[in-house]
Design brief:
transferase; eight-stranded mixed β-sheet; S-adenosylmethionine-dependent methyltransferase activity; about 300 residues; 11 helices; Rossmann fold
């Protein structure tokens, strides 16, 4: 099946094949770039959760970019004990040699080698959508985690807002009337590495929690925008590129507010153990929606 091809491609994805790629990889350590600004705003809303569990053990999945997810999380809560993992060993090995990370493991997210509940949390940022069989990874992350798992991923834009859906139907009708053809809505959802881009949705994580009788999920939407060159330019007020990125993010929010689009990204937490009320309140202040899941009335009947 294609998953074996995907594993092979993803395993080699961080091997630098050009000087330009090497340059981009080195920019990931620059704290001042627009690209770093983009990523920091993805981690920051999780601060209440990270601070609520000092000293806990975390697993980062798909963390092959030098283990920088583990680094960024520890910048928020230094006491966390985090093991970065990825299918590709190359940059993780380099990061360990340079003492950027203490250790790492080469792991396939769909077949994790760890024991049940070996970690407190598992974290996956912008890697789920590369997996050929991502649901296997979800359940593996839940298996090895005691308290919960966290994803930061592209948000599924379907079902579309009602107004956007109506507008698309009108545009498609006009195109067909002129003899044009309508491309499949997922035709553009492939990446150069060959994978289909699996997006995540609030409803999907809710159903995972419901199916496993878990207590709660938390979700938060946000908009992001990438422009070529953000890796090389500082996030300063003098930067035209930075202004463009912020303008695009603001425009994306406006389209969402007008019912013309869905948010581009989602942070999703699936809890195996319910955090304390104070932590949940702090997450709400970070614009998380907390969904306390109902329990199956047909189980544990006396």
């Amino acid at each position: 099946m294609f998953n074996e091809t995907s594993y092979r491609i993803q395993r080699e994805c961080f091997l630098p094949r050009s000087n330009e790629q090497k340059k981009i990889q080195k920019t990931w350590f620059n704290q001042n770039t627009i690209d770093t600004w983009r990523h920091i705003r993805m981690y920051t809303p999780l601060t209440p959760l990270l601070k609520a569990f000092p000293g806990t053990r975390w697993l980062t999945v798909g963390d092959g970019r030098y283990g920088l997810d583990s680094v960024r999380l520890k910048q928020i809560e230094p006491s966390l004990r985090i093991l970065p993992t990825d299918l590709s060993p190359y940059l993780l090995e380099e990061a360990k040699k340079e003492a950027i990370i203490e250790d790492y493991r080469v792991e396939n997210a769909e077949f994790l080698s760890f024991q049940d509940n070996e970690f407190d949390f598992a974290f996956c940022k912008e890697s789920y959508h590369h997996f050929p069989r991502p649901y296997l990874a979800v359940y593996e992350m839940l298996r090895v985690s005691k308290k919960g798992i966290i994803f930061i991923e592209p948000n599924d834009k379907y079902p579309q807002p009602v107004f956007r859906s109506m507008l698309d139907k009108i545009l498609h009708l006009m195109k067909r009337t002129r003899g044009g053809s309508i491309a499949h809505r997922d035709a553009a959802f492939y990446e150069p590495a060959g994978n289909y881009i699996y997006t995540l949705s609030k409803r999907e994580v809710e159903k995972v929690g419901l199916g496993l009788q878990l207590p709660a999920v938390a979700t938060r939407y946000f908009n992001d925008h990438y422009e070529e060159g953000v890796e090389f330019e500082d996030a300063s007020d003098a930067s035209k590129l930075f202004a463009k990125v912020k303008k695009k993010i603001a425009w994306g929010k406006l389209k969402c507010d007008l019912g013309l689009s869905s948010r581009s990204n989602i942070i999703a937490c699936i809890f195996k153990e319910l955090p304390d009320p104070k932590t949940l309140d702090l997450l709400k202040k970070e614009n998380f929606e907390i969904n306390l899941l109902p329990q199956n009335p047909f189980l544990n009947k006396s």
